[in-house]
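Form P-L/3: holo structure prediction, ligand citrulline.
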Amino acid sequence: MPRLLVRRPSTRLADGELTHLDRVPVDPALAVTQWETYVDAFRARGWEVIEVEPADTQPDGVFVEDAVVVFGDLAVLCRAGAESRRGEAPTVRASVERLGLAVVAIDEPGTLDGGDVLKVGRTAYVGASSRTNAEGIAQLRALLEPRGWRVVAVPVRRVLHLKSGVTALPDATVVGFEPLVDDASAFPEFLGVPEEHGTAVVVLDASTVLMSADAPHTAALYRDRGLDVVTVEVSEFEKLEGCVTCLSVRVRD
Ligand code: CIR
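OUTPUT (holo model):
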Protein backbone atom coordinates (compact mmCIF):
# COMPACT_ATOMS: atom_id res chain seq x y z
CA MET A 1 0.00 0.00 0.00
CA PRO A 2 1.45 3.43 -0.88
CA ARG A 3 2.19 5.60 2.14
CA LEU A 4 1.84 9.33 2.59
CA LEU A 5 3.87 11.40 5.03
CA VAL A 6 2.17 14.64 6.07
CA ARG A 7 2.33 17.20 8.87
CA ARG A 8 -0.66 19.25 9.95
CA PRO A 9 -0.35 23.03 9.52
CA SER A 10 1.36 25.02 12.26
CA THR A 11 -0.69 27.61 14.12
CA ARG A 12 2.00 30.01 12.83
CA LEU A 13 1.48 29.03 9.16
CA ALA A 14 0.83 32.66 8.18
CA ASP A 15 4.44 33.53 9.15
CA GLY A 16 5.90 31.17 6.54
CA GLU A 17 8.74 32.23 4.26
CA LEU A 18 7.98 34.21 1.09
CA THR A 19 10.40 34.72 -1.78
CA HIS A 20 8.49 35.64 -4.95
CA LEU A 21 5.05 36.60 -3.58
CA ASP A 22 3.83 39.47 -1.41
CA ARG A 23 2.35 38.55 1.93
CA VAL A 24 -1.45 38.41 2.00
CA PRO A 25 -3.67 37.30 4.89
CA VAL A 26 -3.88 33.55 5.43
CA ASP A 27 -6.97 31.99 7.05
CA PRO A 28 -5.61 29.41 9.52
CA ALA A 29 -8.93 27.58 9.97
CA LEU A 30 -9.44 27.31 6.21
CA ALA A 31 -5.87 26.04 5.87
CA VAL A 32 -6.63 23.19 8.26
CA THR A 33 -9.85 22.32 6.39
CA GLN A 34 -7.99 22.35 3.05
CA TRP A 35 -5.22 20.20 4.50
CA GLU A 36 -7.73 17.65 5.82
CA THR A 37 -9.47 17.48 2.43
CA TYR A 38 -6.09 17.00 0.74
CA VAL A 39 -5.17 14.13 3.05
CA ASP A 40 -8.61 12.55 2.63
CA ALA A 41 -8.19 12.49 -1.16
CA PHE A 42 -5.26 10.09 -0.70
CA ARG A 43 -6.93 8.08 2.05
CA ALA A 44 -9.98 7.54 -0.18
CA ARG A 45 -7.70 5.98 -2.80
CA GLY A 46 -6.08 3.51 -0.45
CA TRP A 47 -3.04 5.43 0.76
CA GLU A 48 -1.87 4.89 4.34
CA VAL A 49 -1.45 8.29 5.98
CA ILE A 50 1.40 8.82 8.43
CA GLU A 51 1.54 12.08 10.35
CA VAL A 52 4.87 13.62 11.30
CA GLU A 53 4.79 15.07 14.82
CA PRO A 54 3.19 18.54 14.68
CA ALA A 55 5.65 21.45 14.95
CA ASP A 56 3.85 24.65 15.81
CA THR A 57 7.10 26.59 16.11
CA GLN A 58 7.86 25.81 12.43
CA PRO A 59 5.54 27.95 10.24
CA ASP A 60 6.53 26.07 7.06
CA GLY A 61 6.53 22.59 8.62
CA VAL A 62 3.39 21.58 6.70
CA PHE A 63 5.49 21.63 3.49
CA VAL A 64 6.99 18.30 4.48
CA GLU A 65 8.12 17.45 0.93
CA ASP A 66 11.02 19.85 1.37
CA ALA A 67 12.48 17.89 4.30
CA VAL A 68 12.99 14.45 2.78
CA VAL A 69 13.12 12.79 -0.65
CA VAL A 70 12.57 9.06 -1.07
CA PHE A 71 14.31 7.07 -3.84
CA GLY A 72 13.09 3.46 -3.63
CA ASP A 73 14.24 2.22 -0.25
CA LEU A 74 16.56 5.20 0.36
CA ALA A 75 15.38 8.33 2.19
CA VAL A 76 17.54 11.43 1.78
CA LEU A 77 17.00 13.91 4.60
CA CYS A 78 17.44 17.40 3.26
CA ARG A 79 19.25 20.37 4.76
CA ALA A 80 16.89 23.30 4.22
CA GLY A 81 18.12 26.27 2.24
CA ALA A 82 16.16 28.63 4.52
CA GLU A 83 17.65 28.75 8.00
CA SER A 84 14.18 29.25 9.48
CA ARG A 85 13.24 25.77 8.23
CA ARG A 86 16.17 23.74 9.62
CA GLY A 87 14.23 22.98 12.81
CA GLU A 88 11.81 20.82 10.83
CA ALA A 89 14.37 18.07 10.27
CA PRO A 90 14.54 16.19 13.61
CA THR A 91 10.84 15.30 13.72
CA VAL A 92 10.85 14.31 10.04
CA ARG A 93 13.89 12.09 10.64
CA ALA A 94 12.07 10.30 13.46
CA SER A 95 9.08 9.52 11.19
CA VAL A 96 11.23 8.42 8.28
CA GLU A 97 13.25 6.08 10.47
CA ARG A 98 10.01 4.35 11.45
CA LEU A 99 9.23 3.72 7.75
CA GLY A 100 12.02 1.16 7.58
CA LEU A 101 13.98 2.94 4.83
CA ALA A 102 17.73 3.45 4.74
CA VAL A 103 18.27 7.04 5.89
CA VAL A 104 21.07 9.36 4.77
CA ALA A 105 21.40 13.11 5.13
CA ILE A 106 22.67 16.09 3.17
CA ASP A 107 25.40 17.75 5.25
CA GLU A 108 26.69 21.28 5.73
CA PRO A 109 27.63 23.24 3.62
CA GLY A 110 25.19 21.52 1.27
CA THR A 111 21.60 22.69 1.10
CA LEU A 112 18.79 20.84 -0.63
CA ASP A 113 15.03 21.39 -0.49
CA GLY A 114 12.91 18.42 -1.52
CA GLY A 115 10.76 20.75 -3.64
CA ASP A 116 13.74 21.02 -5.96
CA VAL A 117 13.80 17.30 -6.76
CA LEU A 118 11.61 16.02 -9.60
CA LYS A 119 11.81 12.28 -10.21
CA VAL A 120 10.94 11.06 -13.71
CA GLY A 121 11.67 7.36 -14.12
CA ARG A 122 15.26 6.87 -12.90
CA THR A 123 16.18 10.50 -13.54
CA ALA A 124 16.24 13.05 -10.74
CA TYR A 125 16.04 16.62 -12.03
CA VAL A 126 17.36 18.91 -9.32
CA GLY A 127 16.68 22.63 -9.26
CA ALA A 128 19.66 24.89 -8.69
CA SER A 129 17.52 27.42 -6.85
CA SER A 130 17.84 29.98 -4.08
CA ARG A 131 17.36 27.05 -1.65
CA THR A 132 19.45 24.26 -3.20
CA ASN A 133 23.16 24.87 -3.71
CA ALA A 134 25.80 23.19 -5.89
CA GLU A 135 27.22 21.30 -2.90
CA GLY A 136 23.77 19.90 -2.07
CA ILE A 137 23.34 18.73 -5.67
CA ALA A 138 26.84 17.18 -5.65
CA GLN A 139 26.07 15.27 -2.45
CA LEU A 140 22.79 14.00 -3.90
CA ARG A 141 24.56 12.93 -7.09
CA ALA A 142 27.18 11.01 -5.09
CA LEU A 143 24.38 9.17 -3.27
CA LEU A 144 22.22 8.41 -6.29
CA GLU A 145 24.50 7.67 -9.24
CA PRO A 146 25.93 4.48 -7.67
CA ARG A 147 22.31 3.36 -7.20
CA GLY A 148 21.52 3.70 -10.89
CA TRP A 149 19.95 7.17 -10.93
CA ARG A 150 20.80 9.95 -13.35
CA VAL A 151 21.01 13.39 -11.70
CA VAL A 152 20.40 16.43 -13.91
CA ALA A 153 20.79 19.93 -12.46
CA VAL A 154 18.45 22.54 -13.93
CA PRO A 155 18.35 26.29 -13.29
CA VAL A 156 15.49 27.71 -11.20
CA ARG A 157 15.26 31.46 -10.90
CA ARG A 158 11.67 32.41 -11.68
CA VAL A 159 9.98 30.40 -8.92
CA LEU A 160 10.89 29.11 -5.47
CA HIS A 161 11.52 25.46 -6.24
CA LEU A 162 11.86 23.34 -9.38
CA LYS A 163 8.49 21.75 -8.61
CA SER A 164 6.84 25.15 -8.19
CA GLY A 165 7.40 25.37 -11.95
CA VAL A 166 7.25 21.82 -13.32
CA THR A 167 6.03 18.34 -12.33
CA ALA A 168 5.39 15.15 -14.31
CA LEU A 169 2.30 13.30 -15.50
CA PRO A 170 2.08 9.49 -15.15
CA ASP A 171 3.39 9.08 -18.73
CA ALA A 172 6.55 11.06 -17.80
CA THR A 173 5.53 14.21 -19.69
CA VAL A 174 6.85 17.19 -17.75
CA VAL A 175 4.26 19.95 -17.40
CA GLY A 176 4.92 23.61 -16.70
CA PHE A 177 3.59 27.13 -17.11
CA GLU A 178 6.15 28.41 -19.58
CA PRO A 179 6.57 32.00 -18.32
CA LEU A 180 7.80 30.50 -15.04
CA VAL A 181 10.04 27.77 -16.45
CA ASP A 182 13.71 28.73 -16.79
CA ASP A 183 14.73 25.94 -19.18
CA ALA A 184 12.00 23.75 -20.65
CA SER A 185 14.58 22.21 -23.02
CA ALA A 186 16.01 20.26 -20.06
CA PHE A 187 13.04 17.86 -20.33
CA PRO A 188 12.69 15.42 -23.26
CA GLU A 189 8.87 15.60 -23.20
CA PHE A 190 7.50 19.00 -22.14
CA LEU A 191 3.90 20.24 -22.20
CA GLY A 192 3.09 23.89 -21.54
CA VAL A 193 -0.10 24.44 -19.53
CA PRO A 194 -2.24 27.59 -19.44
CA GLU A 195 -2.30 28.32 -15.69
CA GLU A 196 0.37 28.78 -13.06
CA HIS A 197 -1.43 26.60 -10.51
CA GLY A 198 -1.90 23.83 -13.07
CA THR A 199 1.76 22.88 -13.11
CA ALA A 200 1.74 20.98 -9.82
CA VAL A 201 0.32 17.48 -10.08
CA VAL A 202 0.64 14.53 -7.75
CA VAL A 203 0.28 11.11 -9.34
CA LEU A 204 -2.31 9.21 -7.28
CA ASP A 205 -2.20 6.12 -9.49
CA ALA A 206 -1.31 5.27 -13.11
CA SER A 207 -4.32 7.16 -14.50
CA THR A 208 -5.17 9.71 -11.80
CA VAL A 209 -3.60 13.01 -10.83
CA LEU A 210 -4.35 15.36 -7.95
CA MET A 211 -4.05 19.08 -8.59
CA SER A 212 -5.16 22.53 -7.42
CA ALA A 213 -8.75 23.58 -8.03
CA ASP A 214 -7.36 26.93 -9.18
CA ALA A 215 -6.48 25.77 -12.72
CA PRO A 216 -9.69 24.61 -14.47
CA HIS A 217 -8.35 24.96 -18.03
CA THR A 218 -5.33 22.85 -17.20
CA ALA A 219 -7.55 20.24 -15.53
CA ALA A 220 -9.55 20.06 -18.77
CA LEU A 221 -6.32 19.63 -20.76
CA TYR A 222 -5.28 16.70 -18.56
CA ARG A 223 -8.74 15.13 -18.85
CA ASP A 224 -8.45 15.45 -22.66
CA ARG A 225 -5.26 13.39 -22.40
CA GLY A 226 -7.29 10.60 -20.77
CA LEU A 227 -6.37 11.27 -17.15
CA ASP A 228 -8.74 11.22 -14.19
CA VAL A 229 -8.27 14.50 -12.37
CA VAL A 230 -9.01 15.12 -8.70
CA THR A 231 -8.94 18.76 -7.66
CA VAL A 232 -8.53 20.22 -4.17
CA GLU A 233 -8.58 23.79 -2.87
CA VAL A 234 -5.12 24.73 -1.59
CA SER A 235 -5.42 28.53 -1.74
CA GLU A 236 -4.04 29.12 1.77
CA PHE A 237 -0.87 27.18 0.92
CA GLU A 238 -0.53 28.76 -2.53
CA LYS A 239 -0.41 32.16 -0.75
CA LEU A 240 2.79 30.88 0.89
CA GLU A 241 4.34 29.55 -2.33
CA GLY A 242 3.21 26.02 -1.59
CA CYS A 243 1.29 23.63 -3.83
CA VAL A 244 -0.17 20.12 -3.88
CA THR A 245 3.22 18.41 -4.14
CA CYS A 246 4.87 20.06 -1.15
CA LEU A 247 2.17 19.07 1.35
CA SER A 248 3.29 15.42 1.40
CA VAL A 249 6.00 12.87 0.76
CA ARG A 250 4.79 9.91 -1.26
CA VAL A 251 6.36 6.54 -0.45
CA ARG A 252 5.37 4.15 -3.23
CA ASP A 253 5.71 0.37 -3.14
C1 CIR B 1 8.92 28.26 1.85
O1 CIR B 1 9.19 29.35 1.36
O2 CIR B 1 9.80 27.47 2.16
C2 CIR B 1 7.47 27.90 2.08
N1 CIR B 1 6.72 29.08 2.38
C3 CIR B 1 6.88 27.21 0.88
C4 CIR B 1 7.51 25.90 0.57
C5 CIR B 1 6.87 25.23 -0.59
N2 CIR B 1 7.47 23.99 -0.87
C6 CIR B 1 7.58 23.46 -2.09
O3 CIR B 1 7.25 24.07 -3.08
N3 CIR B 1 8.11 22.24 -2.18
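COMMENT: The mean pLDDT is 97.
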